[in-house]
Amino acid sequence: MKLVDPIIAFQAEIQQIRRDLHAHPELCYEEQRTSDIVAAQLTAWGIPVIRGLGKTGVVGIIKNGSSSRAIGLRADMDALPMQEINTFAHASRHAGKMHACGHDGHTAMLLGAAKYLAEQRNFDGTVYLVFQPAEEGGAGARRMIDDGLFEQCPMDAIYGMHNWPGAAAGTMSVTAGPMMASSNEFYVTVKGKGAHAAQPHKGIDPVMIAVQIAQSWQTIISRQKSPLDTAVLSITQIHAGSATNVIPDEANLVGTVRTFTQPVLDMIEQRMGEVAQHTAAAFGAEVDFKFRRNYPPLVNHAEQTRFAVEVMKEVVGAENVDDQVEPTMGAEDFAFFLQAKPGCYVFIGNGEGEHRDGGHGLGPCVLHNASYDFNDNLLPIGASFWVKLVEKALAPA
Ligand SMILES: [Zn+2]
Ligand SMILES: [Zn+2]
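That is the input. Now the predicted structure with zinc ion docked in place:
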């Protein structure tokens, strides 16, 4: 492990910020206090900031030398609408809100890097420190882009990092190409005709039609998609009816589709709609088919991934780097940045939870769990990765 020495020296300061953010979680687009703290810290270290991109987003800008090269480093800032059950000193003070995805840690790691970069300035070019809101379902990344992030902050490449529970602290991982899935929702209503349950022939039973649609949809995954492509279609809600002896007018199907590529997603969305329409028509019913695309697949660019792997090896050692990590069907809005700019998104091991202070909940230390806590031992590792990435990408000629 080769950490950057000055970063180790101010670890306590960064940990204090991390724990303060953990104690005061804020949800999508409500990160007012968080962004105030980020902006105040950056300003205190002499770093100019742009505020308001993506409502609560903050971008710090560190320019050095004369090169026109520029890279972006991104941290997300938002928390989740869930109740923390940890009782240690820095546990959430806001009922029903919790930093259960470690975005407090991501923000702190990037602040640690910012402090070092502003002090040492061992690079030639521009670093944009992108603190984004609303990763958890609010598409804060897209909103920052829509608000002009890349016009105001032109950059050659952008990098992101997420803590990864279960992988040992001191390890990092990544893979080129698709690493996280697209996430999409569907809402389907089958419109039949209600009747007495003892006289089904006088109505059009939407329940049986919904069940047929549900069954047929799985054959899109198993029979129409190439077996070499990855996708999942999960129906997570079926709602219909209110009595044992009444055939209802309508039945609803709700769920999610995940894919690693846009063409596979296009095919599944189209076929789901056709199967629903034609199945309903076969029985004289109608269907209302709504399909909503949330986050696109997260696809790492090959050149930037190779570069990130080199830097990881320098920081945590080659034996602690997995450069072909198994992709996950989870989704992440950094995908929007990677659609607009070359770049790479990496995982940093968060350990199994043995780092947690006394008073932690009895659940596992995994993302989106009420017993989770970010591992503060990662602060100097993640910040060192950011710093070395900058110093290598923007090395003085
Ligand atoms: Zn999350
Ligand atoms: Zn997250």
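Residues 101, 103, 135, 162 surround zinc ion (ligand 2) (CB under 6 Å).
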